[in-house]
Amino acid sequence: MTAAKQFEMLFPDLSQIPDAHRITPIHQTEYLIDGNIHQWTGEMEKMYSPVYVKTANGIDPMYLGSHPSMTEKESLLALDAAVRAYDNGRGKWAIMPVQERIAHVADFIGRMKAQRANVVKTLMWEIGKTLLDSEKEFDRTIEYMNDTIDALKDLDRKSSRFDIEQGIVAQIRRSPLGVALCMGPFNYPLNETFTTLIPALTMGNTVIFKPPKLGVLLFKYLLDAFKESFPPGVVNTIYGAGQKVVPPLMESGKIDVLAFIGSSRVAGILKKQHPRLHRLRGVLGLDAKNPAVVLPDADLDLAIKECLLGTLSFNGQRCTALKILFVHNSIADAFVEKFSNAVNALKCGMPWDAGVNITPLAEPSKPKYIAEILADAVAHGAKVVNENGGVSYHSLVQPAVVYPVTPSMRLYNEEQFCPIVPIVPFEHLDAPIEYIAQSNYGQQVSIFSANAEMVAHYVDALVNQVCRVNINSQCQRGPDVFPFAGRKDSAEGTLSVSDALRAFSIRTMVAAKGSEQNKMLLTDIVKSHKSSFLSTDFIL
User: Fold this and answer.
1) What is the pLDDT of residue 447?
2) Is the pTM above the cut of 0.85?
3) Domain range summary for the chain, segments of one domain joined by +
């Protein structure tokens, strides 16, 4: 039986889908603008799952439902609502005491938890993420929001005092920036959307958020929670083609923060559409081509285990994935053989299958792209070294290990974002360092070695090229309290639980000469709670 035929057999007919994981079409006609959930009666965008299902008429992608295909009109209505709610910093949400804003966010978290089963199932079907990873994404998002609340409390505690320097009395706090446009990626549509949306909200900004093109229907279950938890206009949603609904927002000049996770090409286009670039703050998570460097003295079994997770978790569709492996010539043959065997041992199947590793790819165009980039590598002298590597059937593709990869191939520099693992043999120990220095990307790197002197050499050479050096472990984002950033074309701004709060705010100060009259005035304001900014209240 051919590999393609084996893949065909993995796709179920309707009767084979476990009852707990069956899904009925979701027709989302609702959208939230200015505190009201409206019903959309216009054109709808049909959504299909990467999971194909066998029927009497053949095999087709599972029909998931539809969502609004909005126009410039609705986009500008959402913008108007957000601008009104912010009201040049005088809106209810912007001036609300921190403790009250926290209460609203906590209320939202409680309402969101009630939708866990619906969100997880929809996430699994929409992007082909395993059931276990879909559950992890939901739970990690809840944890991130709770950690954000704790970080904001800590930040506010440190600000609940006056400083006196050179006869000047001052209170320094962080204040919001204005209207934020938040757009997340398809691979983490819930978590990475919320890692910008929630910090933006907690700092007092108003928000317009557009779900990604894949992973959009899951937000249907959260609209009521947004409506009930936040004042009108604080959270507004838009749906549809990005090239139709986003440009009007940027061209208006009224967006103060662009929070976007996607490609650097698209981010560049969006920023250029804004007429007031010095007003616009970018919080951007962009491309990455994270390398691993396996040195001669590396623990081979450990390196293979970490590189396997790093390259092929969620089919390699992660910005933090290891996307190219540099392996020293002295151990390259042994590494390639063991690694290829480990790749072939991965279980392919449907997202709900127990122990599954490789699932259907979310992007319909990806199998064709994989075939093209593999053909380019082979044409330039590489081989697909693992059995059936690159074989596909519809959306399911066997991971491909490609060796030896050279600079003449697209895989050498291009971010593949799919289950392909390029392996580059090298002799000179500084060759990977030069590759990273010349790369357009600078997010992370993984170094595998037991030699302290060599590890120290790589650390010192690379900490000014990338933002995280991982020693004997895969690249990753977490823990979320650690900074997540990138150099060059990989990011703009830093995200972590605490860094994100700073990214969506600015330090603002109220100051006065320390005369007795001014001291009495400030004391009166604070003791009488006349101001939400000037306050010494301590949040426990």
Assistant:
1) 98
2) yes
3) 10-285, 290-480
